[in-house]
């Protein structure tokens, strides 16, 4: 049985292998944020895949990419990304995700929206039947903290403000106590709450491919129709 770190490395390598047929010399790769993505960056550095550059979802990923000698293009300079690779905190059977444990949910959602293909890489501990065991991150404008927290309690959630600020200067509320049976509807509803910047639900924008590392390092390739 492999350690979780070993599983992250294995599934990251599988992601490198899976995107190989999608890339040309003009391709742009979207890079997520988190420990599994860090392994993806490491493996990407060690390959000879053809691509023009990367678009990063966080300062931490940008720094890793630059240290690896991989070209980084500012998000504002790019309209389309060929493929976006990122992890998740939870994945349900229909590929709806909870993301944002690392605090980069807004930029992750921006880069994912630019991508022709979204590849999610996880180990099998992240697979759940219903989303909500992992607290749902929500990025909010600081002045809206009170009203957003009140609204979340109406939905049955227990809001907790995460220490510090996001790279956008906002706050993150982590919401526990939710059983998310209809993630699409909840994402739409929370998006409409004044002061909410981004919800860590990726239901309206789901990956087309989920690569899952099993306990012994085997890879399950899960796909869905666009």
Characteristics:
226 residues, alpha/beta, 4-stranded antiparallel beta sheet, 6 helices
Describe this structure in words.
With 226 residues, the chain is of the alpha/beta class. The chain is 29% helix and 26% strand. The chain has six helices and 13 strands. It has a six-stranded mixed beta sheet with strand order 2-1-3-6-12-13, sandwiched between helices. The chain has a four-stranded antiparallel beta sheet with strand order 8-9-7-10. Strands 4-5-11 form a three-stranded antiparallel beta sheet, with helices on one face. Helix 2 links the parallel strand 1 and strand 2. Helix 1 crosses helix 2. The chain is globular, with a radius of gyration of 17 Å. The mean pLDDT is 94.
Question: TL;DR of this structure?
Answer:
29% of the residues lie in helices and 26% in strands.
Percent of residues in β-strands: 25-35%
Structural class by sheet pairing and helices: alpha/beta
Overall 3D form: globular
| Helix and strand sequence | HEHEHEEEHEEHEEHEEEE
The chain-level mean pLDDT equals: 94
Spatial strand order of the main sheet: 2-1-3-6-12-13
Largest sheet: 6 strands, mixed
Rg on CA atoms, Å? 17 Å
Parts with pLDDT < 50 across at least 5 consecutive residues: none
Oligomer: single chain
Count of alpha and pi helical runs:
6
Q: Number of DSSP strands?
A: 13
Q: Which percent bin holds the helix content?
A: 25-40%
Distance between the termini: 34 Å
Task: Record the SSE blueprint.
Blueprint (H helix, E strand, L loop, with lengths): L3 H16 L8 E4 L3 H11 L7 E4 L2 H9 L13 E6 L3 E2 L5 E2 L6 H10 E9 L12 E5 L4 H10 L3 E4 L9 E6 L6 H9 L4 E4 L1 E2 L6 E5 L5 E5 L3
Parallel strand pairs: 1-2, 1-3, 3-6, 6-12
Antiparallel strand pairs: 4-5, 5-11, 7-9, 7-10, 8-9, 12-13
């Amino acid at each position: 049985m492999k350690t979780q770190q070993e599983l992250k490395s294995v599934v990251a390598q599988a992601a490198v292998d899976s995107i190989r047929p999608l890339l040309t010399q003009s391709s742009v790769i979207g890079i997520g944020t988190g420990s599994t993505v860090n392994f993806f960056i490491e493996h990407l550095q060690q390959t000879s895949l053809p691509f023009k550059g990367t678009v990063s979802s966080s300062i931490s990923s940008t720094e890793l990419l630059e240290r690896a000698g991989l070209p980084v293009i500012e998000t504002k300079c790019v309209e389309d990304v060929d493929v976006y690779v990122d992890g998740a905190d939870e994945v349900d059977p229909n590929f709806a995700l909870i993301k944002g444990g690392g605090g980069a949910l807004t930029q992750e959602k921006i880069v994912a929206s630019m991508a022709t293909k979204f590849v999610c890489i996880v180990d099998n501990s992240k697979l759940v039947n219903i989303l909500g065991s992992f607290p749902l991150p929500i990025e909010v404008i600081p002045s809206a903290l009170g009203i957003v927290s009140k609204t979340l309690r109406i939905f049955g959630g227990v809001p907790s403000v995460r220490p510090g600020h996001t790279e956008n200067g906002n706050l993150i509320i982590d919401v526990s106590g939710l059983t998310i049976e209809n993630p699409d509807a909840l994402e739409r509803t929370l998006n409409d709450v004044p002061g909410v910047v981004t919800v860590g639900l990726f239901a309206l924008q789901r990956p087309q491919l989920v690569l899952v590392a099993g306990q012994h390092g085997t890879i399950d390739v899960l796909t869905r129709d666009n």
